[in-house]
């Protein structure tokens, strides 16, 4: 819309649809007129004279279109095609991670609010998916295998995850029907994705939580062809508090740095470099039994990782991705007691892993074909030193042990995703792996189907197998030394996975019902690998059903504010049956039969003035444990008694049920022009004494449960800008 400026008077008049305007001049005189309009050159001043004899003046102004010259703008974007059959069972974004009650601003702890994950451990973040072991879960970070995804390993066995919450974009959980590219994992896949830095301006974010303080700095690269982001995190309580005299010199601490660099050297090319450095340690005397001093624990652990990725769009529908990574991990722990039986014990490990992979993606509708190959080399050195009878339960472990283990494997996989119409997708995949060691050939076929039956009703089905050739018994040698590798290096001999689910949406309610079966068989080989007659076969059959109901955001009537931001409840029931076959009779014998139930509910309610209330309730059946049936005593060379336990049926008894309610109150604030929030979290609001595990004293005559978190309130803050 054009406008006319009249001077003097600073009048601004708008013209009509025909370009006409009218002004009542105050009197005789000379006036200047000028026309303005978007996307046109501004006209020059036009002089108009009005007299008493001719008060009506006529003026004509013309505007010429303006030619704008702007710099060339190149837009680079990573083409993301969803993988419908392998859609994650749960996707948590960064904002949800920071707002999860009781999550310590940690991605893996926030992921515990999922129906497929066991939630009976307050202290650690070791995740068990659908009855599987933590080592059967594959952890990926930006597509790279995370060798050890846990922090605070020495004191809590993994109290935090390796990902700094301020640089995480999302975390994905695949509990069933996952892709063949993930190899021999038989429980689930967890994928942490970091976010790209800001390409336009410098930004920062600071977070203070119960355990640690973290910050993230980000900004553009010179020339605007990329970005960088740097995240730092450290525990702060160990800098403020010191253990009492006689109880060590250092509380557990953690410090780490992570970063990512994105650079676009040319159109259709992207280069991404990442690094992660971490260090933790402890020097503390843990409480012992009544009247006794506990063990003095000193240890340190560190890891470093470097990776580089290059993605290239060769032509329409053809993409190539090359990756490489170098990971190192070290741990050293020294435990010194006060008596002669456990006087000194130390363990040290060092691991080096080199990985390289190449992937092709061909997009030719309705097919998306992905082909990949990878090469990994893993080397570990393990040492163990102990005085005589230092650890009787580990006999016949020698007093000194030093081993060097080397593992290399090559893998190739292919997957084809076919789309039928808009709502049906079929995925067929196969992975073949050639590894050095007891099981050189591993084959993993996978199939997944997802579609919509009618209207809001959909379904998803997934199945897969894992097989090893040749049989693991034939590959063992009597001369082979005892080696220690990560548990994932000894996959099961055979595994079969299957899951099926239905999902529907009715009005504002989402319904999900899913069932699964996982059947794994392992060879139970003695540590010395000599007594072949003692080799037996173990089988674990896990079956379960999961139900979830969620309410979409419910707006208030007559406004944009909502009554409910998030309301969701899940219910899960699992049957886990463990058996073994071997020995003289060579028949299947039941070891344990577990029944597990769990219930989880979470809700978020927005209030006035930027306040938000959040709650999470977790209820589960008690954790199983192996009881102690009896003990017998022998005497060492010094005449001191050494008690040896006689364990009962594995996992045949259960602790008391688990229950925990966490709450969070958060308010959005502005500090010196920067947005942020301040929050109050209360963990275990009911002060329930949950039992996490069961331990016995050294004389094996008393036991006590290890308790979880007490009622614990704390205040935190996040500032970004």
Relevant terms:
mainly beta; five-stranded mixed sheet; 5 helices; 3% helix; 57% strand
Chain-wise SSE layout:
Layout: E1 3-7, E2 11-14, E3 29-36, E4 46-50, E5 90-93, H1 94-99, H2 107-111, E6 137-141, E7 144-145, E8 150-151, H3 153-156, E9 160-161, E10 168-174, E11 188-194, E12 203-208, E13 212-220, E14 226-235, H4 237-240, E15 248-263, E16 269-285, E17 296-315, E18 318-336, E19 345-364, E20 367-386, E21 400-420, E22 424-435, E23 441-454, E24 457-469, H5 472-475, E25 494-506, E26 509-524, E27 536-551, E28 554-555, E29 562-564, E30 566-582, E31 587-606, E32 611-620, E33 624-625, E34 628-635, E35 641-647, E36 653-654, E37 658-671, E38 674-683, E39 691-696, E40 703-707, E41 712-720
Parallel strand pairs: 6-11
Antiparallel strand pairs: 1-2, 1-3, 3-4, 5-10, 6-7, 8-9, 10-11, 12-13, 12-41, 13-14, 14-15, 15-16, 16-17, 17-18, 18-19, 19-20, 20-21, 21-22, 22-23, 23-24, 24-25, 25-26, 26-27, 27-30, 28-29, 30-31, 31-32, 32-37, 33-36, 34-35, 37-38, 38-41, 39-40
